[in-house]
Amino acid sequence: MLFRWDKSSLVVHAPAKLNLFLEVLNKRPDGFHELETVMVMLGIHDTLRFTSLSHSTSEATEPAVSLRVFSINSPKADPTAFEENPPIPAGADNLVVKAAELLRTHTGYAGGANIELWKRIPSEAGMAGGSSDAAATLVGLNHLWKLELATEELRQLAARLGSDVPFFLNSSRSALCRGRGEILEPLDLPLGLFFVVVKPRSGLSTPAVFRRWRPTGSRRSALPLVEELRRGPSARLAGTLYNALQNPAEELNADISRMRDVFSNEPVLGHMMSGSGTSYFGVCGHRRHAERVAARLSSRRIGRVVVARSQF
Ligand code: C5P
């Protein structure tokens, strides 16, 4: 997570993630699913700008935390881009506002903040844009409001906001995640990979995809993937990528199987859906390879196409 001060505002970059492996172990009594998943941060990010707002509850008519959301992906500037549909909510439902309010109630802090959120990461994509924005808010406001909460305390608040949020507080840029996804084992991976990510216009609801999942009786391990990542990019990677949510997602949304067909005809080292979808990625050995694949996919107008490097 990158920080800089701009006059009296704090600017934070919130990166996207991809899941290169995701096994669902079982459904838990609390309704969540026990996972084993490998997550990597990507070099594509949202930007958040935090400005302090003095706010006293006695005179408060305005909310203590105000959020404005801007989409950077204007179709005018970039013909492969499209506006989020439906637009991203800027009210109390947005995880950024929830993170800020959680910090205020947890610490008793009485002030407020104006937050601008510049979106680049597609929504409903399995790239954890909302979760990363929430993590950036916890870290950003902890600095801006001089709360001095330790990382472990922030991590506990993060887990209350969502299963993917703690990953973005991790100093390592890739991790083997267990539990709901919030128990992290940092991975020390030597090489970056290039990804071509396509986000079709349609999205998928994470709870709906998990509800559709059924146990298969067999269980895959993430370790072969981790070993391959340590060795560096090769065609052996294809056999180690795995996502147990891809079948249920394909049953719910025909765009996913369409993406699988499209990527099967591309010279990538492996391809798969990320998280609960709908973004779909191909792995490439180097940037020029990824840009060639991306140019072909962009011309087919199957969705928004992004080239991103893993941030190992
Ligand atoms: O944790 P988060 O709020 O991101 O989860 C959204 C939804 O995804 C949950 O309400 C649940 O339906 C599903 N989920 C799950 N098991 C997980 C993570 C998420 O069933 N490990």
Binned, the helix content reads 25-40%
Query: What structural class should be given to the helix and strand makeup?
Result: alpha+beta
Query: Which distinct ligands sit in these coordinates?
Result: cytidine-5'-monophosphate
Largest sheet: 8 strands, mixed
Q: How many DSSP E strands?
A: 12
Beta content comes to: 25-35%
SSE order, as H and E? Answer: EEEEHEHHEEEHHEHHEEHE
Report the mean per-residue pLDDT as an integer: 92
Distance between the termini: 13 Å
Shape: globular
Question: Could you tell me the radius of gyration in angstroms?
Answer: 19 Å
**Low-pLDDT residue intervals, each spanning 5 or more residues:** 77-82
> How many helices does DSSP assign?
8
Key terms for this structure?
four-stranded antiparallel β-sheet, 312 residues, binds cytidine-5'-monophosphate, alpha+beta, 12 strands, eight-stranded mixed β-sheet, globular
